[in-house]
Amino acid sequence: MGRALILLCLLASCSTPKHLVIFSKTEGFRHDSIPDGAAAITTIGQELGYEVTHTETSSDVVDIEYDVIVFLSTTGDVLNETEQHFLQQFVENGGAFVGIHAATNCEYEFDWYIDELVGAKFDFHRQIKELDVDVIDEHHASTCHLPNPWTRTDEWYVYDRQPENVSILLEIEDGDGRRPIAWTKQIDKGRSWYTGGGHTKQSFYEPEFLEHIKGGIIWADGD
User: Fold this and answer.
1) How many helices (H) and strands (E) does the chain have?
2) Per residue in 65-95, pLDDT tens?
3) Residue 2, in any domain of the structure
4) Is there a domain that residue 165 lies in?
5) What's the pLDDT band for 16 if we cut at 50, 70, 90?
6) Is there a domain that residue 21 lies in?
7) How many CA atoms lie less than 13 Å away from 201 in the CB half-sphere?
8) 132 to each of 23, 127, 180, how far by Cα in Å?
9) Which of 45, 64, 120, 211 is the most buried (most CB within 10 A)?
10) Residue 120 and residue 93 in contact, taking contact as beta carbons nearer than 8 Å
11) Left (φ > 0), alpha (ψ -120 to 50) or beta: where does 107 sit?
């Protein structure tokens, strides 16, 4: 009986699901696509076997245990110093970060976040329009399913810099020049994946865009 209980405990521990947190706190512009995005990413996370929590309480960044954290169109100053420090330690020690759209439009005073984690800061955007997106890395988990070019409609950011020490996944070109719109970065033991798409509600009903996010989560939490 004792051995059977031990075996059951071991099996239970092996089957404990990983945890994914969707964080969408805003202190600036608030995207009306956040509820649609949170619902879509919850479904993706569950399909991948994660327990999923959606929160806009910044203390949860510290208080909840998780393997992946998704910053979904966060804007403004959303973390205090303790939460900033925890996020940095989480990623540098092997955690997975996924940034979507306005994840580059927050934490401007947190140098590590801008310089190291997301790699660039939102500068401005034009009106929503259709663009051809060039797939630079056709073998990545988040892009291997995409046509090249990938034609879609969204709000396209212009950033304050060319992100450094990143692997570029997607690029766009318009009247504001040629620039990356999705990229990855290895940060010590952890990984960061960012996509500039996701402004519109419709984005989170596009199968190709959802598969793009799914692949980003898989890569960020990979070995």
Assistant:
1) 6, 13
2) 999 999 999 999 999 999 999 999 999 999 9
3) no
4) no
5) confident
6) yes
7) 4
8) 29, 15, 12
9) 45
10) no
11) left
